[in-house]
Amino acid sequence: EIVVEFGDENWNSVFRGGGIQNPVTMGQAANNGFTLLRAAAGSSVPLHLEVNSQYVNPWIGQQAILNAPQADAVDIGPYYFYSLDSTDAEATALDNLFSMSDEPPLISQMQATTSALGKSVDIYEVNASTFDGNAPESQRDPYVAGMVSGSALADRLLTGMSAGVVRQVVFDLAQYNYYISAAAGDVMVIG
């Protein structure tokens, strides 16, 4: 299977210069591209075509998929564990790391549209995303790069599977590719 995604976080201001912010227009552009790609590849090439959406705003993906009949899926990035402060107790950090309560309802909202169209919801990126908070690197490491992070990631992947998601891609398994400023100086975190 060859998975092709159209759009890369078009809603994200970081990618604004290369994206199509209007999800209807993005869906229409994706449909044009997917039509050409399917014709050029032929029926023997196992394509799975996806339009990109914002996880926390299912409306974007719903509009995109409604305007991209050639797409097979909408894909989202259900990140978690967004914040860690230096004053957070271990119990609080672990509760936040393993909180999966947001994922099933948001996936269900997207599936309300995709299922009726015979399409799926896929995950293009998933992992902890601790950009916020003022905890130093030494406090973040056990949660985002230690053994417990693997358990939390497995929990998130299993939660996605239980919600009916078949295709999931882990983002930045090594956990270190961005710097943020924290109380104790710059901290490397996932992106």
Topology:
Blueprint: E1 2-6, H1 23-41, E2 47-52, H2 58-66, E3 73-76, H3 90-97, H4 103-114, E4 120-126, H5 137-144, H6 147-162, E5 168-170, E6 178-182, E7 185-189
Parallel strand pairs: 1-2, 2-3, 3-4, 4-5
Antiparallel strand pairs: 6-7
Helix pairs in contact: 1-2, 2-4
User: Which value, in Å, is the CA radius of gyration?
Assistant: 18 Å
Please give the order of strands in the largest beta sheet. 1-2-3-4-5
What is the overall pLDDT average? 87
Enumerate the spans where pLDDT stays under 50 for 5 or more consecutive residues: 186-191
Cα end-to-end separation: 27 Å
Count all strands and give the number: 7
Largest sheet: 5 strands, parallel
Describe this structure in words.
With 191 residues, the chain is α/β, with parallel strands linked by helices. The protein has six helices and seven strands, in the order βαβαβααβααβββ. The C terminus is likely disordered. The radius of gyration is 18 Å and the shape is elongated. Strand 2, helix 2 and strand 3 form a beta-alpha-beta unit.
